[in-house]
Amino acid sequence: MPVLETHDLKKAFFGIPAVRGVSITAEAGQILGLIGQNGAGKSTLMNMLGGVVQADSGEMHLNGKRYTPQSPADAHKSQVAFIHQELNLFTNMTIAENIFIDDFPSFGFGPFKFVDWRIVREKTRTVLNEVGLNIAPDTTVDRISPGERQLVEIARALYMNASLIIFDEPTTSLTARETDNLFALMQRLRESGKAIIYISHILRDVQTLSDSIAVMRDGQLVTQEPVESFNIQRMISLMVGRNIDNLFPARTTTPTETPLLTLEGISAAGIVENVSFTLHKNEVLGVFGLMGSGRTELARILFGLDSFERGTITVDGKQLHHASPKESIRHHIAFVTENRREEGLLMNINISDNIALASLNDFGSIPLQAIDQERLETASQHMAGVLQLRSGDIRTQTVKALSGGNQQKVVIAKWLLSNPKVFIMDEPTRGIDVGAKFEIYSIIDQLAASGSGVLFISSELEELVGMCDRIVVMSRGEIFGEFLRGDFTEEAILHAAFHQERVEVPDEKPA
Amino acid sequence: MTAQRGRFGRLRQLLLSDYFVLYLTIVMYVSAAIILPRLGRPNTLALPGNIANQFTNIWPLLAVAIGQTFVLIIGGIDLSVGATMGITSVVGGLFMAQTLDAATFDKSPLWGSLISEQGGILLTRFGSNEDAVLIGILVMLLIGLLIGFLNGVAITRFRMAPFMVTLVTLTFFSSFALWLTASRNVSGLPEDFVRLGNGDIVSVFLGPKLESQIARREILPFITYPAVISLGLAFVGQFILSRTVFGRQMMSIGTNPKTSQISGLPSARVVIMVYMFSGFCAAVASILYSARIGFGQPSLGGGNILLDIIGAAVIGGTSLFGGKGSVRGTVLGVAFFVFLANVLNAMQLSPFIIDAVKGGVILIAAFLDVTRTRLLTQEQR
Amino acid sequence: MKSLRSVSQVLVNNSTIVLFIAVFVVFGLSSPLFFQPDSVINNIIKASAYTGITAVGITFVLLTGGIDLSLGSNMYLSSVIAGLLMRNQHIGVVPALIVAMLVGMIYGYLNAMCVVRLKIIPFMVTLATLVIGRGIGTALTESKQIDFPIEMGQFGQTPVFGLPMPVIVFVIVAIIGYVVLTRMPIGRQIYAVGNDPEAAKKAGINTDRVITFVYVFSGFCAGLAGFILISQLTRLDRSFAEGREFDAIAASVLGGTSLFGGIGTVPGAVIGALLTQMVSAGLIFNNVNLYLQPMVSSVIIFIAVLFDSLRTATQERLKRRFIRPLEPEKTKT
């Protein structure tokens, strides 16, 4: 009997389906690899398994019994461990404390229980040994590396005696040695009879580790088969689907030679290293990379939100000195972030005011002067029309009620009103359904056509291939390849993205 | 957006209405006026002078509450307004005083150098008391702005928590005020100043600058200087909030600081100016209070005034989380609070019980705020 | 250059101790009487006991990211009820002490319920209960002061192991607080909740229980501290313990507690309380104007909070996610 079975699980957020009827199985003593593009539904599916969200319909069975976790704590009790990509460790406490925080070994009676630190330390050492982490149990979490933190999370899961362990992109912050340790650990877990689900973009790893692979696309399970029936080629084509043709509008312009944004040698320790490229007028330049490759970090540095140590940024001939969003806006740079709800919009405020947010000074220059409300609303309405925003009265309706695609249009409208020349867009189609995506792509084309340059950051390769004039590939904070339109081969690009996943240390052979 | 109907639909609408507080105030007052006689207490509420009296209490509280509303809207808090009131009252008084008693003030550190038997700073140092009221008022407003500036800089530059910063300013300036006057009240203020706080506009002459403000001459007990000043401040405040770029920036910062930063808003500048405005409003309140009582009082703004201010703001719909609030709401909230105190007074309860009831009301108001927010979020779905 | 940087780093990270030593030395040098053991015990340690006890209690609350403004009113109300029972029902000192502690705990429990069940933010809840508590207390005493019977004063003056009573209670509370926070599961869970309430829930911690606990403990400390203080004064009037919550908060923050939660210790709070009292005592010894004392104290608190902010800012920068090794990968053993 499989450890886990799901039947026709469905989940939608604000009316947009994320998982459309998925039925998968995970067997004891086997590793199930789960692959798919961003937005394919993998995370939502796992969140349902882990009790973070509740399914709208469908069933889950754990060891034959109905499994309906209402919270992560329920999942723990049912011995399902979920190693998230964003770690849930308490940075102000030690490794040992993090592992035992909800269930300390103790002595005493009644309300007077005292932690048995000796046992805690012992057990921590044991469990850390199992994951191959050689650090003192009393080390505070804020002093260890992300890779080590991940191993601590895994140690927690092990201590919990989980029968099903889900790994979500576990290797993004790990060094080569840590990754090898992790894989050896997973083999040991597998041999001891645990069921493991392994989600990753790194197809080669998935292929090496898994016993069977499940491919998701657009919220549905494309197939679940034994690993033998897959090769990398097939994995990619199943993930991407072959109906690329009508997904993208035709590009109407080609890039000119005029440079709009030039980066030379941008470096920040631990974040990016020696990044250089040029964005031209009328150009859509794609920046591809896997999760954690440093694209968003680079974008933040470009826009002045974070600092950098070496290198120069030149916009339209002028070098940027005092990094800040205000400076960047003054130099006609716009930044559509990857997190529109938290960083791009004022959710409880009306659409019109959201659109006007980056250009308020255009409507009332002297601080105490009354805003020319009419002009503001006209301008907002105009922008909303240009982008074909579908909504109620923009003066009264709040952004919260809009669909993802329309919300993104509001963000873009906001920036358009500030007259930018350089548009940095980070995952602009994330969480948006297929129809709206097409509209966003058209907008991107129009932006380029009107003389701006668009820096299109994405982890969805197919949309970059469909829309960009050029693609640069980032991996671990460095640029590792540049591809021109006409030379776009998905495999080649993906390989460039994987390139640095195993850093070649002098006396170590690549895996 | 269709409002949810059903059994609670009406109630929900009422709760979410902007004028909820106004209805509440009227209901409370009317029911109290009816019930009181039955409780065997004299119905002081029905006396015509009573209502006019209440308004007198409203104006100064309203002034300082407007400033606090601004601070709450950007998601901060200003605990120091009481101390600002105290120090401005004292310094203003020390500037304007026409005569100071040696026995009372010789312990003050300023005695001899800046103040003396001849009078306050203006008379002692400059020998003349011309425009004393004008200068006194300006000094008070300036100090309010300065304290607000200090608060704002500490919060933005040094990233210190508003609670702690304004707590420190509170302690520092209230003890500073006590030190300057050796705990004494500063009497001997110019008559013109005192009249400022007591209304009665007919045939009052103030400094040339301020006279133009006074257009109404009829003796309507409501239209007094404090009324004009406070309501004027309220109009200005509401105007800034709802009709200017600055007001939008405030709302934006209070709603989502990250989005505001990325959209290029001058967040630090806005925050500093809001705290300066709060200090300014506290100074205005201090002017009105000091004028009313007729002397500079170092302990002005002490006691539980913060309770009244924050309570009024919250009742008026300002959220402690930031991003929500209006001057109009605060006006209603202050009115409610003052009338509530009046009703409780009429019931002849001890001041401490009155405070306790106020506390309970605030709790209910905070709970309603939480519920209101939850209802609004649900409705948007 | 580098060594200068690391020196200032050490200073910032241990600012409280540094300040403590600095103040001690400065005042000791300017007034030799300061250092007499007798005066140290009585003027510093004993006088700081009440703030110290409440500072330990409020540290628990601050660690979870909450706040308790009703501390002073709690001290007052629990003493009132204990005092009334002593006067009217003639109960003994020890039963009265227990009553005070119980009332304090109930008060704290009511605070907790409003925070946890009604989901009102702690600032509002405790601001409201601040006035409600004092109002009830004043009503019960009809605004008159309570004079406690002789036994109370005797109790207050009884030395324990040769040390003044308040000092012993302070020590006991500090030890209890320390043990709970460092050696009991719920203590560690308090740190977790303060660091990340969402992650705490995900980790299976009963955050409601933890939050209730800290408010009850803070209430307990308030009741206890109030009673002990009254045992020294033997007289309870209606302005008793006004403003004490700010003293407690300041002492705790001075000792390194962060207002955002997750950071703070009992020893830190103890040092903070001693430090504030030492400053006051030092100022008195040096005949500094009485009015200037609160001004000096507030400046010191400002400096401490400033250092805390600088420290937090540095830590934030260190928490930035690193996606590549900071230095080229070394071969690990």
Which class of secondary structure composition applies to the elements of chain C? mainly alpha
Low-confidence stretches of chain C: 328-333
Chains forming the largest contact: B-C, 44 and 48 residues
Number of domains of chain C: 1
* Name given to the CATH homologous superfamily of the largest domain in chain A: P-loop containing nucleotide triphosphate hydrolases
The fold-level CATH name of the largest domain in chain A is Rossmann fold
Number of strands of chain C: 2
Strand content of chain A: 25-35%
CATH architectural name of chain C:
Orthogonal Bundle
Largest sheet of chain A: 6 strands, mixed
**Pattern of helices and strands of chain C:** HHHHHHEHHHHHEHHH
Mean pLDDT of chain A: 85
Tell me the number of helical segments of chain A per DSSP (H or I, 4 or more residues long). Answer: 17
Q: How far apart are the first and last residues' alpha carbons of chain C, in Å?
A: 32 Å
Q: What percent of the residues of chain A sit in helical stretches (DSSP H or I)?
A: 25-40%
- Total DSSP E strands of chain A: 23
Q: Which parts of chain A are unreliable, with pLDDT below 50 for 5 consecutive residues or more? A: 500-511
The class by helix and strand makeup of chain A works out as alpha/beta
Q: On the 0-100 scale, what is the average pLDDT of chain C? A: 85
Identify the strand order in the major beta sheet of chain A: 7-10-11-4-12-13
Helix content bin of chain C: over 70%
How are the SSEs ordered, and which strands pair?
The complex is a heterotrimer of chains A (511), B (381) and C (333).
Chain A: E1 4-13, E2 16-22, E3 25-26, E4 31-36, H1 42-49, E5 57-62, E6 65-66, H2 72-77, E7 80-83, H3 95-100, E8 106-109, E9 112-115, H4 117-131, H5 146-159, E10 164-168, H6 176-191, E11 195-199, H7 203-209, E12 212-217, E13 220-226, H8 232-240, E14 259-268, E15 272-280, E16 284-288, H9 295-303, E17 310-315, E18 318-319, H10 325-330, E19 333-336, H11 340-344, H12 351-356, H13 373-386, H14 404-416, E20 422-426, H15 434-449, E21 453-458, H16 461-467, E22 470-475, E23 478-484, H17 490-498
Parallel strand pairs in A: 4-11, 4-12, 7-10, 10-11, 16-21, 16-22, 19-20, 20-21
Antiparallel strand pairs in A: 1-2, 1-3, 1-5, 5-6, 8-9, 12-13, 14-15, 14-17, 17-18, 22-23
Helix pairs in contact in A: 4-5
Chain B: H1 9-16, H2 20-38, H3 48-73, H4 81-96, H5 102-105, H6 121-126, H7 132-156, H8 162-181, H9 191-198, H10 208-211, H11 225-243, H12 245-255, H13 257-262, H14 267-293, H15 305-315, H16 327-346, H17 351-380
Chain C: H1 2-13, H2 15-30, H3 37-63, H4 71-88, H5 93-116, H6 122-141, E1 146-147, H7 150-157, H8 165-183, H9 185-195, H10 197-202, H11 207-233, E2 235-236, H12 244-254, H13 266-285, H14 292-318
Antiparallel strand pairs in C: 1-2
